[in-house]
Structure formats: structure tokens, C-alpha cells
Amino acid sequence: MSINTDYSNIKWQENGKLKLLIIVGTRPEIIRLAAVINKCRKYFDCILAHTGQNYDYNLNGIFFHDLKLKDPDVYMNAVGDDLGETVGNIINCSYKLMNQIKPDALLILGDTNSCLSAISAKRLHIPIFHMEAGNRCKDECLPEETNRRIVDIISDVNLAYSEHARKYLHECGLPKERVYVTGSPMAEVLHNNLEQIKKSDILEKLNLKEKGYILLSAHREENIDTKKNFLSLFNAINKLVEKYDMPILYSCHPRSKKRLEESGFKLDSRVIQHEPLGFHDYNNLQMNAFAVVSDSGTLPEESSYFTSINRSFPAVCIRTSTERPEALDKGCFILAGIDEKSLLQAIDTAVEMNKDNDLGIPVPDYVEENVSTKVVKLIQSYTGVVNKMVWRK
């Protein structure tokens, strides 16, 4: 599929409102931005562009459907044959798009390659608003850590989730007027969809019983592409099945599935590999799981929210570092590492503590349900300020 650099058919509504461009590229961005996108469409003249970083329906389209989001106005098809080509395409496509439609501001979230579209906005003197700013795991092996530092520094207004993130940004030399704490947008998205999550019939479809299965999600490069970590993880999964004698439902990313097939690793027959699930189904599975074992960045936020509504689950993160230390501060999840022994111990601990009702405390910044309101008001407040103070417009 060739990249799209012709945007002559993309038009603003010309309704007199601020012209906001939002760029996404992956499933996590779509999920976390859902409430913000809908609110921005209400109060701004808004165009949503998708880089194509996740192009599979199960990694993309299903979430627009589940979250009642209008389809993107622009598909860039920017994914290349390798990282260098993909990053180059994202910068090239976003530059051409912004140069043509001339937005008043750009909104991005997170640390994916799609966020590098901020480089184009900076060169075109377009104010940049960056949600999830200031997250740091201090692990240079993670590609996201590089993206975070680049995007935080060049963004005009950084919208952080927590005081931890605000502190990191100030340590980087960013002044207070460029950093605001909005909280995480996940609680608002979960709250808005809670009834649909509860109504999901995914347990019945998969013949699973409440608290009778373990939910697994593992897709990160460091867990799947590194042989030692890959073997540690899946050896632990097989032992987990034996110990608890219950099925493990593995929400399996296409890349993870390919890696398993290529390796010839034999998973226990009770490990059910399933294509990535929709938003309502996956969160219903989390809410009803015996335990959730995941390397997802949203696990701490989801665990915090479900604890706040008395639907907590044992949450174990398959990583050695986290960019959400505030969730560790409150005991919302266990950071297990990737070593087989430590992972099994962490799961045992999480399960036993949950049985004893020895739970963490919801992170205040993770249970706010008006983040979209804050984001809209900050964009409206600071677009003109950035133009005047930075670009002398």
C-alpha cells in the first residue's frame, strides 16, 4: 500500500472555531484519546489523521466501532518496510498534510512513532499539545523512551498525567508554563463505556467462567523479540497453567503469534491464543479474571480504575521498569520483571493479596472523569499564547 501525500480533498468545516489536527497511529492512542476526540469534534473544527502504524482491523478499526468514534478523516498509510522508512514517511506525510490544511494546533498523545509528526508541526510553526507527556521509565533499551524525550522537548504545551511526570519535565528544563497535569484520560473512557463493558458476552462466547481463567497480553519488543525473555515468559505461562489448573486466554498480537510460530515453542493446550479483542470484551475479561498478566502500558490505569469501582483484579506487569511510578506508589499493580521465577512469584503474591482483600489505592490522577474538558480548555487557552510568545505571530 503506497503512502498518501495528496490531501487536496481534506477540508475544514470553516465554522469559525479553532482548527485542530489530531494525529494517531496505534490502538492505545485511539483508546486513550476516545473521549478527548469526541469533545474536540464538538468544540473545535477538528480533523483526525491516522498514520497507519496499526492497520489491522483488530488493532484499529474495531476500536472506532466500540468507542463510537467517527472514522479518521485522513489515512496516511505511512508504514514502511523498516523503522527508518516508517519514521521518514510519518514526518513526510504529516508535513505535507499540515502544510496544506494549515491547522491552528496539533494534538498528539503518547510515545509512538506517530507522535514524531510533532517534528513537522515544529518546522511549520504550529502549536503542539502533547498528552501523556513526561512519562519516563529510564530504560534506554525501549524505543518509546527516545520518542518521549524528543516529543516532550519540542512540544509547546505538555499535558502530563501526574506530578511524577511534571517533575520529570521540569528536570528536563521545561518551564512551568509549558507543563500542566490533566490526569489520565483512561478513566473517562472506561466510565463512558462501563455499561457496555458489563454487558459484553465474551465469557459465554469463549466458554469461560468468572474468576476461572487468567488473562494474558504480551506484545512488547523486549519480551517477544529477545530470545531469553521470550523463553522465560512462555515457560512461566506453561507452569502457571499447571499450578492453577485453569485456562489462560492470550490476547495475541499478530507479531507475537508470528514469533511463537517461528520459534516452534509448544504452549500448553490450555493456553488459548485469541486475536486481539475489542475494547468492551477485553475490559470485561479483565474485570472478571482470576489474574491479569500484561506488558501493556495501560494496565496500571485500568487496575486503578477498576479498584475504584470495587471490581479489582490481581494485576501483574511483565516488565522491569515502568513509566507510571504513581501506580506503584499506590500499590495498584506488581512489577514482575521478565525472569521466569520472579514472574511466577509476582503472580502468586498478587493473587493471594487479592484474596485477602489487601488491595492498592486508586491513583487520584487515574480516576478523573473530566480530562477531556481540561484538554479542550488548555488548547483553546494556549494556542494563541504560543503563536504570540513563540512564533511572534
Automatic annotation (TrEMBL):
* This protein's UniProt keywords: Isomerase
Question: Which sequence ranges are marked TM in the entry?
Answer: none
E.C. code:
5.1.3.14
Q: Cite the Pfam families for this sequence.
A: Epimerase_2
Occurrences of domain UDP-N-acetylglucosamine 2-epimerase (ranges): 41-379
Q: What is its EC class?
A: isomerase
- The answer to whether UniProt assigns keyword Isomerase to this entry is yes
Q: Which GO terms describe its molecular function?
A: UDP-N-acetylglucosamine 2-epimerase activity
Quote the InterPro entries the UniProt record gives.
UDP_GlcNAc_Epimerase_2_dom (IPR003331), WecB-like (IPR029767)
Family assignment from sequence similarity: Belongs to the UDP-N-acetylglucosamine 2-epimerase family.
Q: What is this protein called?
A: UDP-N-acetylglucosamine 2-epimerase (Non-hydrolyzing)
